[in-house]
Amino acid sequence: xxxxxxxxxxxxxxxxxxxxxxxxxxxxxxxxxxxxxxxxxxxxxxxxxxxxxxxxxxxxxxxxxxxxxxxxxxxxxxxxxxxxxxxxxxxxxxxxxxxxxxxxxxxxxxxxxxxxxxxxxxxxxxxxxxxxxxxxxxxxxxxxxxxxxxxxxxxxxxxxxxxxxxxxxxxxxxxxxxxxxxxxxxxxxxxxxxxxxxxxxxxxxxxxxxxxxxxxxxxxxxxxxxxxxxxxxxxxxxxxxxxxxxxxxxxxxxx
Length: 255
Hints:
Pfam families: SBP_bac_3 (PF00497). It comes from Stutzerimonas nitrititolerans. This is Bifunctional lytic transglycosylase/amino acid ABC transporter substrate-binding protein. Residues 23-234 form the Solute-binding protein family 3/N-terminal domain. By secondary structure, the protein is an alpha/beta fold. It has eight helices and eleven strands. The chain has helices at residues 2-7, 14-18, 45-57, 68-77, 143-149, 164-172, 183-193, 219-236, and strands at 22-27, 35-36, 42-43, 60-65, 82-86, 96-98, 104-112, 132-136, 157-161, 178-182, 200-213. Strands 5, 6, 7, 8, 9, 10 and 11 form a seven-stranded mixed β-sheet that branches. The protein has a two-stranded parallel sheet with strand order 1-4. The relative contact order is 0.22.
């Protein structure tokens, strides 16, 4: 029943549907919430929720997978209209608008092996001095965190790798003391590797909202329309946005 409600569309004639404005929706690979499948098509719960909200507001979505730097540049020059992503990015503040409602939440965690002492909960990043930290390529962290990681006085050894799968293998084989990564894709990769759960400390917790380029046509109108559409779906669909019912379980995610 919930799935039928999620994908039910307003009654539109075919010609009217074709006339709906198309928004370019940028995203970075973040399985299983949003990712590219083997055919390069966007999949995942956040994709489904985004399509449904845009549909309710009278728009169509064209998804583009991009590394964080190119995604941000697209929001700054208007080539990307919309990003369902982390709210409160300071580098985007002057160039974007945010909707009120959160689609989800993301946690940035510091993972370690069970044989590695955990940093202090009060200031986990301070405990990284002189240690090795594994970072996943293509992902953006936050200015304060980047300053700490790149502070030469802390002598933190940064180990870059291309995927969460390889990052977890590096941690397992002691090629780094800690792995800094977002919980959802790290847990997805851990399950693929059939690894035991890892101890971790949450460094930052942020809501996921629609981030709209100020250079998108009618950006303020678009923001208000998405907020209104989200609220209409909250009334129409019990439990919206149906986190459990719409969770995608891909066999593999491309990067």
